[in-house]
Amino acid sequence: MGCGFDSCDRPVEKGGLCAGHRKQKQRGGRLEPLNDALAGRLTPAQNLHEAAMRLADSDSEDDRAFSRNIDSHRKAAITYARHHQVVKTLEAFDRRREAGLRVAGPAPKLSAAGARAAVDEAGGIRAAARLLKVSRNTVRAALRRRLV
Ligand SMILES: [Zn+2]
Asked: How many domains does the structure of the chain reveal?
């Protein structure tokens, strides 16, 4: 038997609906056709939330169910943390790209003299970094090299 939502032919999970449409109903929104790629799938944050709710609702008498819920909550938390870190990294790359900075690869060679000249010309470390299209840390590191 298929899902109760018209033209949806996914298998019924509970309440006469497929997993994806059941989620839509639970979220209180209108039922809409599912995007195949996203059908029944939650974002890492939603998944972590669901796992936390399942864990909170666990029957404390049922040790196996409880440890299963602990385990799925742990996995959801790890997935969420990884996803969050990846998103942050990609955003940082975008910001660097937009600022005309390198995104990957070895740090460019910048001599202490070159850094000093750029700082003098641009009038500061921040402006020198922009001028040389390197990070401020690269300029600072180059300046420090002269001091050792
Ligand atoms: Zn459905």
From this structure: 3
